[in-house]
Every structure is written in structure tokens, then in C-alpha cells.
Amino acid sequence: MEYRKTVRNLDRRDLEILKILQEDGRAPYSDLARRLGISEVAVYSRIKRLVRDGVIKGFTAVLDESRLGLGIGALIGLKATPLRYEEILNKLSRFPEILEIHDVTGDYYAILKVRTRDKESLTQLLDKIGKLEGVISTDTKLILRTIKETTKMPLEGLVDVARQPRRTPI
């Protein structure tokens, strides 16, 4: 299993770095080094490896959609013709209003999370999606309020699976 292989390549220091970076992606290496009791060079090497191995996908700013005028959020259930499904997903992935596309089980083939300025722009987006060849139907749920939304991964349970840290000579 790829998951187990990746987790076993991590140690407690790696997980601590990930935990800190999830809280503050701009944390200075000097701060990380001090908190972990290792050198800045060791922190740099570990982060570089975590990026190379795909554990860290990237660093980004988290934006406030309401302050940007993107006040309408919705979840859209999508039904599609199986023969055109991959093509549809490929086209949908290029729509800037679509933040997430999830291939799911159940009543729909996919669930889309979208953000638009207003109801009119949501209507235009739904029309564009509905006109894609192979889309059978959509079912839209407006988001009234968001109780929890995070990109932080639950790292606490991974400590038991992670290997012991190597002694760092640096």
C-alpha cells in the first residue's frame, strides 16, 4: 500500500514539521529548528524531501471568499454518461469557479464544490456544466453557512506508524 510506505518513511520530526507548517506555512526554518532541537539545514533538508516525495503538495495563501466578493458557495451532484465521464471531469477541472471535484459513490458520479459572486453567476455556471456533452443532470445545494472548513490533515494518529527519528549529525 502506497499510504503505509509513505508514512513509514516519515518520523516524528517530519510529522512535527508538518504539524507546524499546517498552522503557519510561512514559519521560518530558524523557528522550526529551535522547536525541534535540530539545525536549520536539517529542517531545510527535511522540508525539501517532504516536497520531493509529494507529502507537501505546495504552499499557498488561504483566502477569505466573502472579502473577495465570492459569497455564493454550492455543492453540485453530477450525473453523467459513463462513456464521457473522464472527458467531463477533464473539462470541469478547467472551470475556475469549481474548487473541488470528488469522484464519489452513491447517487452521483461526482460532487463539485463551487464558489461564485452571486446567484446569477451560479446560474451561468450551472448552464455551462449542463451543456457539456454527456452530463445527464446536476443537483445543486446552496451552502448556507460553513461550520468547519480546513485543509489541515489529522496527523496525530500517524505518530504510531512513523519510524523513530534518525540521529542527525548536523
Structure description:
The protein has 170 residues and is α+β, with helices and mostly antiparallel strands. It folds into two domains: 2-60, Orthogonal Bundle (Arc Repressor Mutant, subunit A), CATH 1.10.10.10; 66-142, Alpha-Beta Plaits. The chain has six helices and four strands; from the N terminus they run ααααβαββαβ. Strands 2-3-1-4 form a four-stranded antiparallel beta sheet. It starts with a helix and ends in a 28-residue tail after the last strand. The relative contact order is 0.19.
Layout: helices, strands, pairs:
Blueprint: H1 2-8, H2 12-23, H3 29-36, H4 40-52, E1 72-80, H5 85-92, E2 98-103, E3 110-116, H6 119-130, E4 135-142
Antiparallel strand pairs: 1-3, 1-4, 2-3
Radius of gyration: 21 Å
Estimate nothing, just give the exact number of structural domains.
2
Q: Give the overall pLDDT as a whole number.
A: 92
The CATH C-level class name of the largest domain:
Alpha Beta
Helix content: 25-40%
